[in-house]
Amino acid sequence: MKKLTLLACSLFAFAAVAQAKEVAAPVTSSKEVVAEPVVIEEVVVAPVVENPWGFINLRAGWDFWSEYGNFNRHEAYDTDLSKKTKDFGGELAIEAYKSWDYFDLGLGVAYQHHMKRKSSNGVSGGEFSSVPLYVTGRYDINYWDWAATPYIKANVGYSFNFDSKSVNTPDRDWGTKVDDGLYWAAGVGVQYEDFNVDVLYGANYAKTKVDGNNGSDKFDNDYERVTLSVGYRFNIW
Questions:
Q1: Alpha helices, DSSP H only, in 174-215?
Q2: In the prediction, which pLDDT does 118 show?
Q3: Read out DSSP for 15-47?
Q4: Nearest alpha-carbon partner for 181 in 210, 137, 153, 223
């Protein structure tokens, strides 16, 4: 009987210890911790566009109005040469500019083919061509960020005159020689992107020497005109 009692007490004690271990066991949570994704933003740095140092402008022009200085009467003929002109006159030019905010300053050179002189009472000739070397300036009038930029422009330089034509009369042709002189032009224009259009009034000053029977005489033979030009610019960085 004592053995049975001892066995029963042992089983009861074992059961109690097992129950205590089960209660004391750590409780684990079933909730999982989910890490939030890290978003990495790509920062794109736009290149800084600087203003160009300057530009080169190629220009072609057409003289839609022109006239020559008036020859005085010469002993060989009884009329003056006409001021009026005919046929084609124009120029090709290249200009290099240094740029500031609203002002451009540079140098230019052009080949200028002047129009022919109309005949007056059978007398004509005395034309010439020019290559002026000049300082050129432009002032942009664009304070409101327009798409097209208007500007005023002026050229001042020296005209190398050549290819002097003989003075033709009904009786004979009189040999001529033309001197160099001042060149200037001024006007307005518009710049749109890399294209520009301008209208300039200009003059090449010249004196022409005409050989005569009793020596030679010089006459003012300036060429004045209004030129419509179209140009294209190449930026210099």
A1: none
A2: 93
A3: HHHHHHHHHHSPPPP-PPPPPPPPP-PPPP-PP
A4: 223
**Could you tell me the two tokens for 130?**
């020019």
Tokens 């050549």 belong to residue: 162
What pLDDT was estimated at residue 122? 86
pTM metric for this prediction? 0.75
39 Cβ contact list (under 8 Å, min separation 6): none
Kindly report the length of the chain.
Answer: 237
Residue 140 burial by Cβ neighbours in a 10 Å radius (0-12, 13-18, 19+): middle
Contact 164, 202 (CB under 8 A): no
* 116: pLDDT strictly greater than 80: yes
CA dihedral for 197, 109, 224, 80, sign (positive or negative):
negative
Whole-Å CA distances, 23 to 5, 20, 31, 190, 224: 27, 5, 21, 94, 116
* Residue 11, CA atoms < 13 Å, CB-side half-sphere: 6
Range with top average pLDDT, 35-44, 63-72, 152-161, 169-178: 152-161
The residue to which tokens 């034509």 are assigned: 165
Check residue 98 and give left, alpha or beta (phi > 0: left; psi -120 to 50: alpha): beta
Q: Which two tokens stand for residue 229?
A: 């030009």
Cα-flanking dihedrals φ and ψ of residue 46, to 5°?
-75, 140
How far apart CA 106 and CA 76 sit, in angstroms, is: 46
